[in-house]
Amino acid sequence: MRQMPTREQLEKSRYVRHLARRSELWRLTRRSVPRGVAIGLLVGIFALIPGVQMIGAALMCVPCRGNIPIAAAMTFVSNPASTFLIIPAALWVGGLLGFPVDMAAFSELYRNGAGVGEWIGWLLSDAAPSLVVGLLVISVLVSAIGYFLTIFIWRGIVLRRRRRRLSRAALAPAE
Length: 175
Hints:
The protein is mostly helical. It has 8 helices and no strands. The protein has helices spanning 7-11, 17-20, 32-47, 52-64, 68-74, 80-96, 103-111, 116-171. The longest helix is centred in the C-terminal third of the chain and has 56 residues, at 116-171.
């Protein structure tokens, strides 16, 4: 997160200057934060390509009016540690939906520490439809859960602040 450019730095770039000036993409509001969370989770899980995830999330935030920094941060859900959980889950979900996948071949490649070429060869053989459909289903479900969970948490924070304010007003001496 420390290496992420600030809004002021982005305003100096001629390529993204017009986006940096749109304040609704950078402010924390009750609408932009859940949108940013959902977009970041959707792109972060579906894309699985580092670097492309942040750019994709930022570009999707523009028409959806989501918070760009939140979306970029949420793409880190799919990191090298979680990718090894996401891919088998996506293959399993794709298999449940009727797309053939050979999980034994996947396990064998994983156990033997296969190289990138072997993984790509396996993926292009018969696993691609199952993986893509599984990633799509998982990313849509997780982003929807993240969206509604963020709304729920935001509402809880607002209600708690309101209660504190009202209780302080009630305890304050009358003038």
